[in-house]
Amino acid sequence: MARQLFIRLEAAKPAGQAAPVVSEDESSLTPAYRASWLVMENGRPLGNLMRGDLSSAVPLAANAQVIVSIPAEHVLLLDIVIPGRNRQRLHNAVPYAVEEQLIDDVDGLHFALSPQANNNQYTVAVIDREKFIGMQKLLNNAGLHPHVILPDVLSLAYKEQNWVVLDSGERQFVRADRYHGFVTNKDGIHNLLAVSLREAKQKPRLIEVRVPAGSDMDWPESIEDIPIVKKEYEQEVTVLLACDYDAQTSINLLQSEFSRRENISRHFRPWYSAAALLAVWLVWQGGLNVFQYYQLSAQNTALKKQVEEVYRKTFPGARRVVNASLQMKQKLKGLRKKTGKSTISMSEMLVAATPILMESKGLKINKLRYQDGKLDLELELKDLQSLDKVKEKLAKRQDWKVVIQSASSHKDKVESRMQIQSIGS
User: Fold this and answer.
1) CA separation, residue 269 to residues 231, 280, 286, 319 (Å)
2) Assigned CATH class of 346-422
3) Residue 238: which of 67, 54, 8, 43 has the closest Cα?
4) Tell me: the pLDDT tens digits for 240-282?
5) What are the strands, taking DSSP E only, across 258-373?
6) According to CATH, what is the number of the domain 3-258?
7) Whole-structure pTM value
8) pLDDT tens across 137-190, in order?
9) Structural domain boundaries in the chain
10) How far apart are CA 73 and CA 9, in angstroms?
């Protein structure tokens, strides 16, 4: 996605800081993490960095990829060599492949794999399962459903052949290679860098150290003969991490049972049986409709043949039959004209006259009679003016002749005999 919502979760108690003494009730109300977030578009910040309650970030998540960085102290990064390319099988094998390198029981841990490197080598991100579930609940309860969750140190820029250090005050980020990094405090950063450099399989050409503008922390010119290049920054750390983030050089912890696809599948799994029954019913109903369609089509074809046979028997001189029903109506209409009978039926006259008659309030039809295109009506109306209006509206049809044959007025009503005649009848 071109637009991203980058959310950074930080431990509420900074590393190295003693926790204040609080009661159990106060401890339960203290948030475990502080949140800050930033909208990115095409790799650039869109708007200002925001902090506060995570629910405030929900409107910004619309039409955006939600990326959440969590404290790297919670995540252990290990290298393993394991053959195979099937991700599902690899995930199943990983706990046994790294079990000897871990103190905790693998059943209580969650594992996420990096993309494959050379010679079947992978980096595995390991996190306590319950802690990871707690982080996701924090996000879900706020109304946020992330696409990516990663350790914050892997948000820091990866530069081939160089190490990158981000001095954020008490926390010091170190990005060592494509899928590796660690976080320490400012008092131990120099010693830990020296140890890491001595153990590194491939030493960097230089170490780029990003320090906040005006920082008074002393950095040597080199460590283990690796030169140090200092660069000052003025942005917030969250902004730096958001701008550095690269999906190709990070490990998404939302894998296996925590993947978005698995979460969606888990949500709809209770409905699978109902969906299967619905699918069977739809197939059965569709088959029944097709059967009925062909059955009715066959009946329709048979009826058309019968009508055509009746037409040919009635009019033996007919040569070309296209629509027997319509042709028969036309023939009968012609015969009526020759015999002087009306070509309009009673039903046709009523269909045309009824809307006009219904417009007159209080109008009542006591009797009606039809013969040869003449419709005789005995009407009951409220006054003579209503009778005149009805006659006027009916007479607007050019093919009708309307005659009031009689009209008698009583106290509160008018009784009338009216004849509607089709012209030509």
Assistant:
1) 52, 17, 25, 66
2) alpha beta
3) 8
4) 999 999 999 999 999 988 887 655 545 545 666 777 788 888 8
5) 364-371
6) 3.30.420.380
7) 0.60
8) 999 999 999 999 999 999 999 999 999 999 998 899 999 999 999 999 999 999
9) 3-258, 267-339, 346-422
10) 12
